[in-house]
Amino acid sequence: MKSPLGRRPRVVLVDDDPGLLRLLTIRLGSEGFEVAACESASQALTSVPRFQPDVLVTDLRMKDKDGIALLKDLQGRYPALPVILLTAHGTIPDAVKATKSGAFAFLTKPVEKDQLLEQIRSALKVSGFAGVTEDWREGIVTRNPAMEDRLSQALMAAGSDSPVLVTGQPGTGKARFARAIHQASARRGARFTTLVCATATMELLQAAMQGRRDLDEALAPAGSPVGTLFLDEVGELPLDLQIALNGLLDQEPVRVIASTARNLPELIAHGRFREDLYYRLSVSRIELPPLAQRREDMPLLAAHFLDELARQTGNRQVLAPEAVELLTASEWPGNVRQLETLLHHAASLATGPVISAELVQRALGTGTAPQVSTFDEAREEFMRNYLVQLLQITRGNVTQAARLAGRNRTDFYKLLARHGLQSEEFKVR
């Protein structure tokens, strides 16, 4: 058994009976699974972060810690990981307790091979392993072990509908990471709606929540999933909208992914973020490493951004080896976003196909601090982002967008023209 991701599904087996553990390991290995065998719950807790399993199968009765206790530990750290419990003492109370504790399945020993395989394959669908192709992580370029670990966490989180909080410094790619989780989930065929929390209003919040539903519900297949709502920089959401969001989350069949560069526990301590909302949004938490901790990714990212630029301009350019060395040695307080901006600048300075180290140095300037926009530039950028958000929420419906903005349609069309935006680009095809 092999997935579209190009790897075998991974199963952690936990049992303090060495003979049974070896037997189940051989059985699952013969069926194409990659297996990590653990003789105790504590060994399993050490194995899971390294092995990144898609399913965990554990005995219920063990000496150091029973399967229910292990299940609860895993739920706190890896809420999307399906857990199957096995026991030789298959009583109804045990089954009820296991189900209430959140176990995916409860099987009695001696477990039939086909029965175990059926439950594991069902659990793989829940974990997000089955049916996901490699393009779910398109645009996330890395060979860094820490980033690969975060992507494994993302794939596990995609298998459930629990909220995810993506944290990290500005420019680390949190929005792209959120979209990757959506693409790996069962909702990938539905809409991905972004709400920029810094510019959110009550009307925009309500429209974004409603926008997750298929507006043509009469044409949508029965049981089709609603989309994903991405709360961009949720730490910037005003308190009154935090209260409203809490209420809307109770009413809607939501899949919410939020991002923040802020320290939310610190905001909570200062009364600027609601503690109850924080815990609702952070069922799964994934922190992205800064670019300074991913220096081996610098050449890959540079080549990726130049390839993207070549597709836009038709002009293919490459970095000189000395330029790559300079990029790798530089500091990047603005992270991946700063690197992309700098490469675009350096490419615009080049008169030929090779971008020299001198041009990169010129683009870097005398320091490595991010460039600061003028007030007028910042205002124009804010306005364009605001218009894009309105068009995304309304699917290019100018009448609805103008109403949300409190402007008439004529003025709104002028604003779109001024910022080079076409409403047709946002319409669902």
Structure description:
The protein is α/β, with parallel strands linked by helices and 429 residues long. The protein has 4 domains: 10-127, Rossmann fold, CATH 3.40.50.2300; 134-289, Rossmann fold, CATH 3.40.50.300; 292-364, Helicase, Ruva Protein, domain 3 (Orthogonal Bundle); 375-426, no CATH class. It contains 18 helices and 12 strands. Helix 12 packs across helix 14 (335-349) and helix 17 (398-405) packs across helix 18 (409-418). It starts with 9 loop residues before the first strand and ends in an 11-residue tail after the last helix.
Write a concise keyword list for the protein shown above.
single chain; 429 residues; alpha/beta; Rossmann fold; Helicase, Ruva Protein, domain 3; 4 domains; 5-stranded parallel beta sheet; 12% strand; disordered N terminus
CATH superfamily of the largest domain: P-loop containing nucleotide triphosphate hydrolases
Question: What spatial form do the alpha-carbon principal axes imply?
Answer: globular
Named CATH topology of the largest domain: Rossmann fold
Class of the largest domain, according to the CATH hierarchy? Alpha Beta
Q: What is the subunit arrangement here?
A: single chain
**Tally of helical runs:** 18
Helix content: 40-55%
Q: From N to C, what is the helix and strand string?
A: EHEHEHEHEHHEHEHEHEHHEHEHHEHHHH
* Average of the residue pLDDT scores: 83
Domains (count): 4
* Content-based structural category: alpha/beta
Low-confidence stretches: 1-6, 212-224, 366-372
Q: In what order do the strands lie side by side in the largest sheet?
A: 2-1-3-4-5
Sheet having the most strands: 5 strands, parallel
The radius of gyration is 25 Å
Distance between the termini: 36 Å
User: From the coordinates shown, what is the CATH architecture of the largest domain?
Assistant: 3-Layer(aba) Sandwich
Number of strands: 12
Strand fraction band? 5-15%
